[in-house]
From TrEMBL:
Pfam families membership: LRR_1, LRR_8, LRRNT_2
Stated name of the protein: Leucine-rich repeat-containing N-terminal plant-type domain-containing protein
Source species taxonomy: Eukaryota, Viridiplantae, Streptophyta, Embryophyta, Tracheophyta
Domain Leucine-rich repeat-containing N-terminal plant-type: residue ranges: 30-68
Gene Ontology CC terms: plasma membrane
Molecular functions per Gene Ontology: ATP binding
Membrane protein topology class: Single-pass type I membrane protein
């Protein structure tokens, strides 16, 4: 009788306390089993790094590519860059709840990104660059609000750029080049005031460039080249980008004139507009952008005289206006 009562009591205690217990009681063992699950999902490890080094007999924090926090001794960084690994990512990686850096760059991982990665709300640095990941770019990436760097370049991602990426209010680098991304560029991207570099080149983006960027004081590089962008460059595009240094819009279907707001970008070093369908003249204000080193505007329908003010640009290294209807010549002053 007493025994039965005790058993019942224990059962009740277990029943009601287990769920909370198992949620709170994640330890370095949770991290270890997540990493061992990753090891299990790797089908080729040419340098035998995981095979020999990720052994349960040595502490997880000493494993190759793994870093732990000094206080809590939980896994805070996982960097497996360039190990030639082939495999998929297991959902268990979503249990590495202290992770702030996850770099899988330069390997041969494939498949989709597991949705459980959306639990990694401490992530600041995330790179899946140069792998064979596919499927859509998940919209849950927009919930990783601590992200500073998001690298998805050189993969097989398709579909559209999720609007939710605009919620990443601390993002500095957004690098999506060389995928199969289509649709238009969401206006939300230009809402990220911390943005420094945005690379969307070599995709299949279409539609026009979103207009009216907010004040983006940190933005230094925009690369939208080699897509299918069309329409005019928005008139106000450069109104609030005072620190823009590099602009790549070449190899698209852009039409219309060079907007006057471009000449507010006093720091501009690289202007690349070649292989579009732009028209009109090259304004004399080009001579005011004294930091310019490269001007590539060939293969458009520009016409008129090449402004002699270009000769004022003492830092200019290369000026290409071939296959246009310009008259006059470019005389370099030294
Ligand atoms: C695993 O790699 C780390 C870092 O290179 C090294 O310090 C450690 O000794 C290695 N451990 C084993 C068991 O090979
Ligand atoms: C970790 O994640 C996997 C899959 O998402 C799950 O099955 C497992 O129970 C989780 N918890 C621990 C403590 O490993
Ligand atoms: C990835 O590999 C390429 C080509 O080998 C190399 O140029 C690049 O620096 C590597 N990236 C990283 C982050 O190691
Ligand atoms: C930009 O951010 C503001 C303020 O946070 C918000 O009200 C607005 O809806 C956002 N616009 C876009 C296009 O994301
Ligand atoms: C770009 O647009 C053109 C015309 O609309 C279309 O024929 C072509 O397939 C598109 N290319 C890409 C890469 O989407
Ligand atoms: C461009 O420079 C010229 C003379 O160098 C100056 O008169 C003009 O105001 C400048 N324009 C702008 C838009 O800064
Ligand atoms: C140059 O002008 C001629 C005559 O207007 C036109 O036929 C031709 O397409 C133009 N070339 C370019 C590259 O815009
Ligand atoms: C730029 O060039 C023009 C014409 O060559 C000249 O009149 C002007 O003074 C120059 N401006 C500057 C700021 O050097």
């Amino acid at each position: 009788m007493g025994n039965t009562f005790l058993n019942l009591a224990l059962l009740i205690i277990f029943h009601f306390s287990m769920p909370t217990f198992s949620m709170k009681l994640t330890t370095i063992l949770t991290d270890q089993s997540a990493l061992l699950a990753l090891k299990d999902h790797v089908i080729h490890d040419p340098e035998n790094v995981l095979t020999t080094n990720w052994s349960a007999s040595s502490p997880v924090c000493n494993w190759f590519g793994v870093s732990c926090g000094s206080r809590h001794r939980r896994v805070t960084a996982l960097d497996l860059t360039g190990l030639g690994l082939v495999g998929t990512l297991p959902p268990h990686l979503g249990n590495l709840s202290f992770l702030s850096l996850l770099y899988i760059t330069n390997n041969s991982f494939y498949g989709r990104l597991p949705a459980q990665l959306s639990n990694l709300h401490r992530l600041k640095y995330l790179s899946f660059g140069n792998n064979y990941f596919g499927g859509e770019i998940p919209s849950w990436l927009g919930s990783l609000i601590e992200l500073r760097r998001l690298f998805l370049y050189q993969n097989n991602f398709k579909g559209v750029i999720p609007f939710s990426l605009g919620y990443l209010s601390k993002l500095e680098f957004l690098t999506l080049f060389e995928n199969r991304i289509s649709g238009s560029i969401p206006s939300s991207i230009f809402n990220i005031s911390t943005l420094q570099n945005i690379y969307l080149s070599y995709n299949m983006l279409s539609g026009s460039i979103p207009s009216g960027p907010h004040e983006l004081l940190s933005l230094e590089l925009i690369d939208f080249s080699s897509n299918n962008l069309s329409g005019h460059i928005p008139k106000d595009m450069f109104d609030h980008l005072p620190n823009l240094k590099e602009l790549y819009l070449s190899v698209n279907l852009l039409s219309g004139r060079i907007p006057a707001s471009l000449f507010k970008c006093k720091e501009l070093q690289m202007l690349s507009l070649s292989y579009n369908q732009m028209e009109g003249s090259l304004p004399i204000e080009i001579g005011n952008l004294s930091m310019l080193q490269y001007i590539y505007i060939g293969r458009n329908h520009f016409e008129g005289k090449i402004p002699k003010q270009i000769g004022n640009l003492t830092l200019l290294v290369d000026f290409d206006c071939s296959y246009s209807n310009f008259t006059g010549e470019y005389i370099r002053k030294n």
